[in-house]
Design goal:
Elements lengths: L2 H16 L3 H21 L2 H10 L3 H20 L8 E14 L3 E3 L6 H10 L2 H4 L3 E3 L14 H4 L18 E3 L5 E12 L16 H12 L4 E7 L5 H31 L4 E8 L5 E8 L8 E7 L5 H14 L5 E9 L16 H12 L2
Parallel strand pairs: 7-10
Antiparallel strand pairs: 1-5, 1-6, 2-4, 3-5, 7-8, 8-9
């Protein structure tokens, strides 16, 4: 691959962000979308992945990710052969599952028509009655960049034909609540210019959907809670689903850890820190500790995706800790390495040993 391909996408993004007039910004963003759409059609996903990895700033990376979602839809629609537009969407579902013994849940639903009927009765997709869902619970891997060119053919499906997608079973470990992210892709027919994906919540149909999906996945000894999010275009569903999974995982971690500390040694103290991995990925980490607990800190690692801002994730952590009445919260302003050079373990900070630990960690980032 020629490096100019990656530079082209980044240059369009930089030009859009630097534009002082809205019309120029729109022109550059349109050019970026068209360039990405052409690469998807040609199967040149390496250029897109490289641009995202080499983005010179978070703003550029976020714009590239947002535009990729638009280019994916535009590229698919350009392949459609009907005068009646096909809307391709995905329904993100957060599944919280626990079991006393390890268990694997099949990801092929026995009665997806029941779920479709409940959504239609609740007015999902703006009351549209001409949509269908796949019966396969797919993972985020189904929307990986290298799979996007093949998925453009989803927009060529005949009315009522479900999207063929690989189901992703759920492996539930013993004695541990796990949070899974799965998707039900679907298609819907609508009039020209009608946006079916405007709903902000699932209130009219979410509860009945949750109960029906839990029944279909039920197994002896299994506890399961399914939390659907509003349907979105495929990559938008991926972005929002990842954020929702992280939020639910964080809530479980904080509530369980705070309860454990209060039931044993007393109030925990929290430290929030940002970290950069050797491969360029980022994380925001939360540690909870107490000076009377010498075992170390309880830690949560929130991976940052292309559409994320570290400060937004840190703010979400602060808000949750406030709700749980954790008063001792320190948010560090520096960016730290992934690994503690002494323990060779992921770096987490104890609130009662911050000064020396922070200084040592910062020194390792400068060598």
């Amino acid at each position: 691959m020629n490096e100019a391909h990656t530079d082209e996408l980044i240059d369009y993004a930089l030009a859009a962000l630097a534009a002082e007039q809205g019309v120029i910004q729109e022109k550059q963003e349109s050019a970026l979308r068209d360039a990405m759409m052409a690469k998807l059609r040609d199967g040149d996903t390496e250029a897109i992945a490289r641009a995202l990895a080499q983005a010179p700033s978070l703003a550029v990376q976020r714009l590239l990710a947002r535009t990729l979602a638009l280019a994916h839809v535009a590229g698919g629609r350009s392949r459609g052969e009907s005068d009646l537009p096909l809307t391709v969407f995905a329904l993100p579902i957060i599944i919280v599952a626990g079991s006393a013994a390890p268990i694997t849940l099949e990801a092929t639903l026995p009665d997806v028509d029941e779920l479709v009927a409940l959504m239609k009765a609740g007015g999902a997709l703006r009351g549209n009655q001409s949509f269908t869902l796949s019966n396969a619970l797919a993972s985020a891997a189904a929307f990986a960049i290298e799979r996007l060119p093949a998925s453009l053919d989803w927009w060529k499906l005949n009315p009522g034909a479900p999207i063929a997608i690989e189901p992703a079973p759920l492996s539930v470990p013993a004695n541990q609540e796990s949070v899974f992210l799965r998707f039900l892709p679907g298609t819907a027919w609508a009039g020209p210019g009608v946006d079916l994906l405007t709903a902000r919540d699932t209130a009219p149909w979410g509860m009945s959907f949750t109960q029906a999906l839990a029944r279909q996945l039920a197994r002896e000894g299994l506890t399961l809670l399914a939390l659907p999010r509003p349907p979105r275009t495929p990559l938008s569903a991926l972005y929002q689903g990842r954020v929702a999974q992280r939020e639910v995982s964080l809530q479980l971690f904080v509530t369980h850890a705070v309860r454990k500390f209060r039931g044993s040694v007393g109030e925990p103290a929290a430290v929030i820190s940002a970290h950069r991995m050797d491969d360029g990925r980022g994380e925001v980490r939360l540690s909870l500790s107490n000076p009377f607990d010498e075992k170390g800190a309880e830690g949560f690692r929130a991976e940052l995706y292309a559409t994320d801002r570290a400060q937004d994730v840190a703010t979400a952590m602060q808000d949750l800790l406030r709700e749980c009445q954790v008063e001792d919260v320190t948010t560090l302003g520096d960016v730290f390495p992934d690994i503690d050079h002494e323990t060779r373990m992921p770096l987490l900070f104890r609130a009662d040993a911050l000064a020396g630990a922070v200084e040592r960690a910062l020194k390792t980032t400068t060598h």
